[in-house]
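ESCALATION

Customer reports they have been waiting on this structure for their group meeting. Please prioritize. Original submission:
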Amino acid sequence: MTIAEMLNQSIVLTLLGMGVVFSFLIILIGFMNILRLVVHAAGWDKQEPKAEATSSAAPAVDQKAIVAAIATALHEKN
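Update from on-call: job pushed to the front of the queue and completed.
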């Protein structure tokens, strides 16, 4: 097999491989667009409000106590 034949074969294999990858990417993009349409049509893309954020039962956070705890920890470290 001559150098020219090997180069010709390598070019063909390179183009074939790139064509397969490019085709797969096109198919993947198509399926992702179809999935986007299905999710939107089914209403699965809507975010429900969190019950935790609207609940008043959550304990209030004392910011001064947190700052004091961090300051104490840093002071004891030194």
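Sent to customer with the following note: The two ends are 76 Å apart (CA to CA).
Escalation resolved.
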